[in-house]
C-alpha cells in the first residue's frame, strides 16, 4: 500500500516536508479514503525519530469537490444569464432598427412622386440595415471570441440623421 511504501516498516521513516503527503487508506467502515500524512523530525529517548500525524480527510475532500462543482455550476448559470440579457438587448436594438427601416419604407411609399425624398428614405433605411449588420457582426465576434474592430461615431451626425424622421413622425 502507499502507506507502507512511505513508511517501509511500522517504524520506518516518512519524508519530512512542510506539506502533507496524501495516501490512500481503508477507513474503519471498510471504505476507501484519503488521509494526510505529516512527518516532523523529533527526538525520542535521546534518539532521532519522526512524529507522524495521520488525518482522515476523505469527507473534507468530498465536500471540497462538491463545493467546486456547485461553484462551476453557478458560474455557468451566471454566464447563461448574461448571454440571455445580451441576446435580449441585441434583439431589442435590431427591432428598433427594423422599425426605422419599416417607417422609412412606409414614408417612401407615401411619396412616390418625389424621387429625392424616396431616395433619402431608402438611404436612411440602408444606414439602419448597416447598423444591424454591424451589430450582428459584433455579436458573432463575441460568440466566437474574435476581436472587434471598434469605430468612433459622431453622435451629433446620428441625431441629425434622425431629425427628419422624428419631425415627420411628430408632425
What do these coordinates show?
It is a single chain. Helix content is 61%, strand content 17%. The protein has 4 helices and 3 strands. It has helices spanning 2-7, 58-110, 115-144, 155-170; strands at 21-26, 32-44, 47-56. A 3-stranded antiparallel sheet has the order 1-2-3. It is rod-shaped and about 110 Å long. The N and C termini lie far apart (89 Å). Mean pLDDT is 80; it is low at 1-11.
Radius of gyration: 35 Å
User: Structural class, judged by helices and strands?
Assistant: alpha+beta
- Helical coverage, percent range: 55-70%
Order of helices and strands: HEEEHHH
Distance between the termini: 89 Å
The beta-strand count equals 3
**Sheet with the most strands: spatial strand order:** 1-2-3
Net shape: rod-shaped
Strand content: 15-25%
Mean pLDDT: 80
* Residue runs with pLDDT of under 50 for 5 or more positions: 1-11
Number of helices: 4
Tell me about the largest β-sheet: 3 strands, antiparallel
